[in-house]
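Journal club side-thread
Mid-discussion, someone asked how the predicted structure for our own chain would compare to the paper's figures. Pasting it here so we can look after the session.
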Amino acid sequence: MTNTNTDTNTSTPTKTPPSRMADPGAFVPELGEVSAALFRATGNRSVPRKTISLVQLRAGQIVGNTYLTVLNTSFLRKAGESEERITAVASWQDAPYFDGAERAALALVEATLQPAPHGRERVTDELYAEVAEHYDEKALATLTIAIGQISFFIALAVIGKPQPVASLADEQWDRG
């Protein structure tokens, strides 16, 4: 598959290279079940869906993956999130747009995905306590699963390099 997109700077069609691998779900059909179970687990409403999408957008930014960044940006837009908040996720630490719970969640995903300074834990007791101030036990477990969910998809996204899409219904993998 070669997608034809329009370059926003020149308005000329550009060819998007094919993904590196064909749709992994075609070879491992259990992937759909795992994916659905993770979406159900994070959709229990103990953590706002917008917060989960903010966290997952930040994860995509941390690993430098266009697929995850475009997808989660689209989720946030469809949920009515402001462009200021979406844009500011990359610099959330000094942005005025996020409440304490969102800041704690963003700090948690950063600590989980980025290397810790030598000799330190990634998630310190202080960070865990800060997150626990904003989330009860169920919400903290859900937030942890949401970070695990995006980590699961990071492997597929950076190895397989699916096409950037604004919806999971869009064709993102080559059909092989």
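Post-session note: Helices lie at 24-27, 30-42, 49-63, 66-78, 83-88, 100-113, 125-134, 137-160.
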